[in-house]
């Protein structure tokens, strides 16, 4: 009972600080219009940036994949779970990002979290390595750095000069700079060209987690590296396939020798069951859409919605970090106030989550709006009008 009392005390403390997280049950496919907990809602909270999660072609490809390969893989990739679908997807992903990488090869993972754990624990497996981690990196990158044997040095958000000083002072045999491309709670972009120049000067790896840029940034949707016109053998790229690609999983792409090191040393890859081959099969169709004419049209519509929201919001009390990406945060401050505003939106049938510490720093609780190419201009106008009204109350 003492053990339970301790747990219950921790839960009560979270509740007192307005930090309790609660799940909602979606009863329909991921889309702007959803049935959630039995109620029709207009959602501005998914990372389905191109609206592919319920795209008819992708759904049909998933059905076809299940008919071809069954429901599961049965084992890890290195035992018997590596199917033809996985191999085709990896080849296609390598070709997709090849313009920005040297001798590119790709490795598919079940989740982005696993991919980030894998890349940092494999590259940072030696005690004489040092990881230089962006202050606002995703939790998966933070955890990957903690699990690696390498030392860790954190540099301030977007501070290239501070990172330069850290690299200059380091005598580590292996240096690994790691950053999100698009920061998930602010929507801003890392200074990737400057970071890559530093890494090339100091003989360091630059690991870029492009979870929120893949499929969205770049003329072909190839992500942040295409957007910034980068190409280097120092780059290690992590792309997520459960956001703009609309399905599930992630991949690491880099020089072929780096990927072979992942196959041999990355525990999150070696010791887990491979994802269902049907998912890999469906992702081939997602990639067709992303790099084709439809993908270009979806990205253009998404950019127009981002500009529309910027034009129509007229906020004076709440802060809006500058973001030209689908992630559009509104910083409110106090946890209870952010929850109150989210509840006010919910009462109007608008689903926008309140994000609180420890996901964001203390006193920066916020609404995290995410736009999708599946949204309409009328829906974005409805959201803007509701926000303007709530801030004025």
What does the overall shape look like? globular
CATH superfamily of the largest domain: Type I PLP-dependent aspartate aminotransferase-like (Major domain)
Summarize the helix and strand pattern as letters. HEEHHHEHEHEHEHEHEEHHHHEHEEEH
Number of strands: 13
What is the percentage of strand-forming residues?
Answer: 15-25%
Q: Helix count?
A: 15
CATH topology of the largest domain: Aspartate Aminotransferase, domain 2
The structural class is alpha/beta
What is the C-alpha radius of gyration, as a whole number of Å?
21 Å
* Main sheet strand line-up: 3-9-8-7-6-4-5
Helix residue percentage = 40-55%
Write down the overall mean pLDDT.
Answer: 97
Cα(first) to Cα(last) distance is 46 Å
What is the CATH architecture term of the largest domain? 3-Layer(aba) Sandwich
How would you characterize the largest beta sheet? Answer: 7 strands, mixed
CATH class annotation of the largest domain: Alpha Beta
Low-confidence stretches: none
**Tally of domains:** 2
């Amino acid at each position: 009972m003492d053990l339970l009392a301790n747990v219950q005390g921790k839960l009560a403390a979270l509740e007192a600080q307005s930090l309790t997280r609660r799940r909602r049950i979606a009863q329909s496919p991921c889309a702007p219009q959803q049935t959630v907990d039995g109620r029709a809602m207009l959602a501005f909270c998914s990372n389905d940036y191109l609206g592919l999660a319920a795209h008819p072609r992708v759904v049909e490809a998933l059905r076809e994949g299940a008919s071809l390969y069954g429901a599961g893989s049965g084992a890890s990739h290195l035992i018997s779970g590596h199917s033809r679908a996985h191999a085709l997807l990896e080849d296609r992903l390598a070709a997709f990002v090849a313009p920005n990488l040297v001798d590119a090869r790709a490795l598919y993972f079940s989740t982005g979290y696993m991919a980030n754990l894998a890349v940092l624990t494999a590259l940072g497996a030696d005690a004489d390595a040092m990881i230089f981690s962006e202050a606002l990196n995703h939790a998966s990158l933070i955890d990957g750095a903690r699990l690696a044997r390498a030392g860790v040095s954190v540099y301030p958000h977007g501070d290239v000069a501070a990172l330069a000083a850290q690299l200059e002072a380091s005598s580590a045999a292996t240096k690994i700079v790691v950053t999100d491309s698009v920061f998930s709670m602010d929507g801003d972009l890392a200074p990737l060209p400057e970071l890559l120049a530093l890494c090339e000067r100091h003989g360091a790896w630059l690991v870029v987690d492009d979870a929120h840029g893949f499929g969205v940034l770049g003329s072909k949707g190839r992500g942040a590296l295409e957007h910034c016109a980068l190409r280097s053998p120092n780059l290690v790229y992590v792309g997520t396939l459960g956001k703009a690609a609309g399905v599930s999983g992630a991949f690491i792409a880099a020089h072929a020798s780096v990927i072979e090191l992942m196959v041999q040393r990355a525990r999150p890859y070696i010791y887990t069951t491979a994802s269902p081959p049907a998912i890999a099969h469906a992702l081939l169709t997602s990639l067709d859409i992303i790099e084709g004419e439809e993908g270009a049209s979806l990205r253009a519509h998404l950019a127009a919605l981002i500009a529309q929201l910027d034009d129509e919001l007229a906020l004076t009390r709440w802060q809006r970090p500058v973001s030209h990406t689908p992630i559009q945060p509104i910083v409110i401050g106090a946890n209870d106030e952010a929850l109150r505003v989210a509840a006010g939106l919910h009462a109007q049938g608008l689903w926008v989550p309140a994000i609180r510490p420890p996901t964001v720093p203390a006193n920066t609780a916020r609404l995290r709006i995410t736009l999708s190419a599946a949204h309409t201009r009328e829906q974005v106008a409805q959201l803007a009008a509701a926000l303007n009204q709530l801030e004025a109350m």
